[in-house]
Design brief:
It is a single chain. By secondary structure, this protein is an alpha+beta fold. It has three domains: 88 residues, Immunoglobulin-like (Sandwich); 145 residues, no CATH class; 179 residues, Restriction Endonuclease. Helix content is 33%, strand content 24%. It contains twelve helices and 23 strands. It has a seven-stranded mixed sheet, with helices on both faces. A five-stranded mixed sheet has the order 3-9-8-5-6, with no helix packed on it. Strands 2-1-4-7 form a four-stranded antiparallel sheet, with no helix packed on it. β5 and β6 form a beta hairpin. The longest helix is centred in the middle third of the chain and has 28 residues. About 3% of the residues have low confidence.
Length: 520
């Protein structure tokens, strides 16, 4: 069913159901979805129900861009899914620029893209991480793959793999096909059976039909390595559902922000889905053949057996997809919830500055660190070293307040601060640092208001007891307060605003790297 919509400019849009992607939406712009006839209808945007009016639903995307899933549910269980393509603010980042920004960040570290906004981007899963935001990635995989996995398990349950297991059984002599050493030893313990073993006459036995021998037999069993593998996946998926639910609850409790989309409204639907998944898995585990298995484990023997059976192989593949963690390169079949556009811009600044530093200092040995212990509570770090030179780029470095213990010799003389980016330079005892703060702003008034942050950082932040050489705002496009971006102003005042190009800004480079003695 097509859904009618009116955008912020009054243009009518006819939305086609998935897999079609519907363009025409922009961050912070309002759209009106018109209610279809009949009903009652409910419209969900990324699991959050929109409040209805007499004619439809009003929706304004927050600070995010990407593909958003809308779901229309109606009477008699009718449900329709729509994919909405939300563009970034055209005055800050055009669509092409935003796409390049996403690609550049993903090439450095896809985890930097992860967030909890409704917008998504296609990704692959390759790397492992314990970042809390990956609970959303894990939830998306569970939602996509658990139902197909359980259907595949149902097919396996109809024709489970069996094996032969050697056991022992007491049988009459007429049914004994083979006696082994244990059979003989057990028979010799009884006078009647011993006489048979010793080839004496059975006529002397008082009741030959009651004579029983302990003999080896081959029994058909469901307790096979292949079944052990699938039972291990079932248990892991049930455990993962409970773990994700706990993480989502913790994430939803975080402090609300005007620039982030609340998780609380989307939480009930997701918790209900996870609870249903766990319940369905528990019901399967109470059925044959899974209830009879002695253990759950993934072994080389089990994987070989799984690979040889198409039904088992398909079930295992779907279960493994549901359980994979981490984020890999873009372009795969899975979708990754993104950070807000302003945070994506901040992450892109980190990636672009790191590339510029590697170009300026090609002789240094560069390494990428995530949550480096030495840098206090920085989210990520690029570090270049060689001889007595060390250059670092820190993302979200903590500067504790003046009465607290410094983090890696960073501190604030006033309250605690978390500037977006910190550049440090050390050479033979000469230490310098520059602070940069990414601001997803463009208008003159907004930039002038944000300049108070640059002044605060310039005056309050210390590293090894030293003031910063300068504090600047990083903007997505040209600053409307032009004088703030002039090189002379920024060089003299040690504050200002700039945009990142291909090369490191000359003023930042001058302040960070001391000139040779002959040029001072």
């Amino acid at each position: 069913m097509h859904l009618l919509c009116t955008d912020d400019q009054g243009r009518a849009l006819e939305l086609a159901p998935a897999p079609a992607v519907n363009a025409g939406f922009e961050e912070r712009d309002t759209a009106i979805f018109h209610m279809p006839p009949g009903g009652p209808w409910t419209l969900w945007i990324d699991d959050e129900p929109l409040p209805p009016s007499d004619t439809g639903w009003l929706w304004a995307p927050g600070f995010f861009a990407g593909e958003v899933t809308a779901r229309l549910s109606g009477p008699d269980g009718a449900a329709y899914e729509y994919r909405l393509d939300v563009s970034p603010d055209r005055q800050k980042l055009g669509r092409d620029h935003f796409a390049r920004l996403i690609e550049e960040v993903a090439a450095d570290d896809p985890l930097l893209l992860a967030g909890d906004e409704p917008a998504t981007v296609l990704s692959r899963a390759e790397q492992l991480s314990e970042d809390p935001l990956l609970a959303l990635v894990a939830f998306a995989r569970m939602r996509a793959h658990v139902s197909p996995f359980l259907r595949a398990i149902t097919e396996v349950s109809r024709r489970p793999r069996t094996g032969l297991r050697q056991g022992r059984r007491l049988v009459p002599l007429q049914q004994a096909r083979r006696l082994d050493l244990r059979s003989v030893r057990m028979a010799l313990r009884s006078p009647d059976s011993a006489s048979v073993v010793l080839n004496e006459s059975m006529a002397l036995l008082s009741n030959p039909s009651a004579l029983r021998f302990d003999v080896p037999v081959n029994e058909v069993t469901l307790d096979t390595a292949a079944n052990h593998c699938l039972r291990a996946l079932l248990l892991a998926i049930r455990q993962r559902a409970h773990a994700i639910a706990e993480l989502l609850i913790e994430m939803a409790k975080r402090q609300e922000s005007d620039t982030r989309t609340s998780l609380m409204a989307r939480l009930p639907v997701r918790l209900e889905l996870l609870e249903r998944m766990a319940g369905e898995v528990a019901a399967v585990l109470r059925q044959q053949p899974w209830v009879e298995l002695s253990r759950a484990e993934i072994t080389a023997t089990g994987l070989t057996a799984v690979a040889s059976d198409p039904a088992y192989a398909r079930a295992f593949q779907l279960g493994w997809k549901a359980l994979r963690t981490g984020i890999g390169e873009l372009g795969g079949e899975e979708r990754l919830w993104l950070s807000p556009t302003w945070e994506l811009f901040e992450r892109w600044c980190f990636v672009r500055l790191a590339r510029q530093l590697r170009q300026v200092f090609p002789a240094l040995h560069w390494e990428r660190l995530t949550a480096p212990a030495e840098s206090g509570r920085a989210l990520a770090e690029w570090r270049g070293t060689s001889g007595g030179v060390r250059v670092r780029l820190l993302l979200q470095q903590k500067f504790p307040s003046g009465d607290q213990k410094p983090c890696d010799q960073f501190k604030s003389i006033s309250r605690q601060r978390f500037p977006d980016l910190v550049l440090t330079y050390e050479q033979n005892g000469d230490c310098r640092f520059v602070v940069l703060d990414a601001k997803y702003r463009r208008s003159r008034q907004a930039i002038l208001e944000e300049m108070s942050v640059a002044h605060t950082y310039r005056d309050s932040l210390r590293w090894k007891g030293l003031r910063c050489q300068g504090a600047y705002l990083l903007l997505p496009s040209a600053c409307e307060a032009e004088w703030l971006s002039e090189e002379g102003f920024r060089r003299t005042e040690r504050v200002g605003a700039l945009t990142l190009g291909e090369a490191l800004d000359p003023v930042v480079r001058e302040l960070l790297v001391p000139a040779p003695a002959g040029e001072r």
